[in-house]
Write a structure and sequence with these properties.
Keywords: Membrane, Transmembrane, Transmembrane helix. It is a single chain. This protein is mostly helical and 113 residues long. It has 4 helices and no strands. The model has no long low-confidence stretch (mean pLDDT 86).
Length: 113
Amino acid sequence: MTEYLTELQEWVIELGDKHDVDPLLLGCLYLVSKVSLFTSLGFLVRNLRAKKPITLLILLAGIFFSVPYTYIIIAGRDIPVWVYMLIACIFMYGGYTIWKKVTEKPEALDIVE
């Protein structure tokens, strides 16, 4: 099992070196951006229910969502075209799911005492 993990680690480091992308930095950016994204979406839903402004929160959610992919686009070298296409699809799907989550009406809870 440790052999597989070592091989995986070497493969990821090789890919990072080949494309000038730091795998550790990319992983940290991904983790931090997703935590920030879900936090901002939580505040967005709260403000939406309270009928408060949500423009800044939508902007922040979009920025948090795109940080790791933007790093790949800016720092990466010799990235295959299919990776850029995948990133474009991720952006489109992410925008669609954020829009759907924001415009979704919460279901009424049946509370029986």
